[in-house]
Amino acid sequence: MIVDREAGTSFELTSAEARRYERDGFLVRKAAFDTAEIARLRQAAERAANLAQALSEGGSSYILDGKRFVDSGYVTIQFEHAASSEAIRVIEPVHQLDSRLEALIDDPRLVEPMRCLVGKENIALWTDKLNLKRPREGSGFGWHQDSPYWLHDCAHVDQLPNVLLAFDDATDANGCLRVIRGSHTRGCLPGRRDGTQLGGFYTDPGHFDESQQVSLEVPAGSLVFFSPHMVHGSLPNNSDQPRRAIILTYQPSGYPMLKSGEMRNVCQGLNQTKPEPTQPTSRHLSNKLS
Ligand SMILES: O=C(O)CCC(=O)C(=O)O
User: Fold this and answer.
1) Would the pLDDT of 225 be above 90?
2) N or C: less crowded end of the chain, CB within 10 Å?
């Protein structure tokens, strides 16, 4: 079924979008959220960052490859790499820190495409992270896949698609997300063996074609859906503009979230389950592609 989104009837993927995602491993929907919504989400992101800063003061701090992380309960707060920096780079998970971020989990603009990409009518949150790249300070992120990182905690790693919502205009200058087109087709790729603590989380450059990289320069409010096997990364923010974004990752319903171990099924709140349908429904990607 081709859906007319302009008519406001549905946010399901169209067949053409499903085919593009299957081929490229990612899909962009530009300006899915309007300016006023994004302004409120930016405020929510800053509230969450302030709360995380306060949480980090009582958390347990550790350094990996010179990068400072603080665990506060099940929340991991990663700081910018410069030794003197107090700027937060990533908060995972973040939705529990602000009700406006929490509401995104159930937003149909994320959920309806995700039902198709997960391949289930009933879906749940797997994890979510706030990526903050402050002007002139925000660091890059080397080429990596998410799936090898999740493999040991999850038996359905193929069913963990991501969606990034851009809170600011994302450009090459402020370190927009970059992806390697088509790199999602070969499952989990080997990590780098460079003797560093985190090296194994970065994809061995011999296993993907860097010339296939695409810079996802998108206006604030845009959604980027991408496969858990997608090789992706980003450059540092060398501009005077912030680059803030949230990434939510979904899974079939009935499974716990990565870090808290709690269950967050979509549209049902915390720790409630709903029976899974035994057969995929018409929303699912395989049907879109047939
Ligand atoms: O936005 C970025 O810098 C990249 C984020 C990313 O790759 C991730 O969170 O897995």
Assistant:
1) yes
2) C
